[in-house]
Amino acid sequence: MTKSRVLLGVLLFMTAGALVQAQEGPALTPAYVEGFIAALPEIQALGKELEMREDFTKPDMKTADGTIPVNPMALVAAAIEKHPEAARFRAIIQKNGFADIMTWGHVGDRIMHAYGAVKVEKESPDMDAKMKEAMDQLDKSDMSAEQKQAMKKMMMAQTKMVGAWTTAPDGDKAVVKQHMAELEKAFEDTSKR
Predict the structure, then answer these.
(1) 14 pLDDT more than 60
(2) What pTM was estimated for this model as a whole?
(3) Exposed, middle or buried, 84 (CB in 10 Å: 0-12/13-18/19+)?
(4) Which terminus has fewer CB within 10 Å in the chain: N or C?
(5) Is residue 185 packed enough to be buried (19+ CB in 10 Å), middle (13-18) or exposed (0-12)?
(6) CA 190 – CA 192 distance, rounded (Å)
(7) Of residues 17, 19, 18, 6, the one with CA closest to residue 152
(8) DSSP state of 59
(9) 172, burial (CB in 10 Å: exposed 0-12, middle 13-18, buried 19+)
(10) Could you report the per-residue pLDDT of 129-159, keeping only the tens digit for each?
(11) Cα 68 versus chain centre, distance
């Protein structure tokens, strides 16, 4: 196995580990998922408006090790709560069924992690076997011992993160499965804005 193939395999695996499990906040319900989806366009529009005025700065979405934090939506919610325009965000969130901004953030994290778990289970049900194969190929590669050790350390950290996806609560995954098409469209629409 060439170094480039090993590196490509590791990079592909690492991108799958961008989100990790977060279980704070209330249990997911269909109403929460529907409210979250309905609020996204307005929340994003207001956020962009405030960013254009240089009146809102998104929280840093990278941890010290370069991964995405376990609670990105809750971090955004905490930043929103401190903002002078929090009442405008609160109005959007409350009209979509959330008691407060932090509940919206925690529910958003649960939705995102359950969505990730469902996607991983559907697209890579044999991820453990693939990781073992990647480790075996790494051992057989012509990389130096130091490079192999560094790669293994990175792969193990990513394995831990991806493992969190597959342990999302079954109830959360069941609710999200009912709304996969709507969530995929909402996430796609959000990324276009």
Answers:
(1) no
(2) 0.72
(3) exposed
(4) C
(5) exposed
(6) 5
(7) 6
(8) P
(9) buried
(10) 777 888 888 888 888 889 888 888 888 777 7
(11) 7
- Helical H segments across the chain, by residue range: 3-16, 30-52, 72-81, 86-95, 101-123, 127-140, 145-165, 170-177, 180-192
CA distance 116 to 71: 13
Residue pair 39/96 in contact (Cβ under 8 Å)? The answer is: yes
Phi, psi of 55 (to 5 degrees): -110, 0
The proportion of the chain whose per-residue pLDDT surpasses 70, expressed as a percent, equals 74
In this model, does residue 91 exceed pLDDT 80? yes
Tokens matching residue 185? 């469209």
Please report the DSSP string for 10-23 in residue order.
HHHHHHHTS-----
Task: Report how far residue 13's alpha carbon sits from residue 193's, in angstroms, rounded to the nearest whole number.
Answer: 27
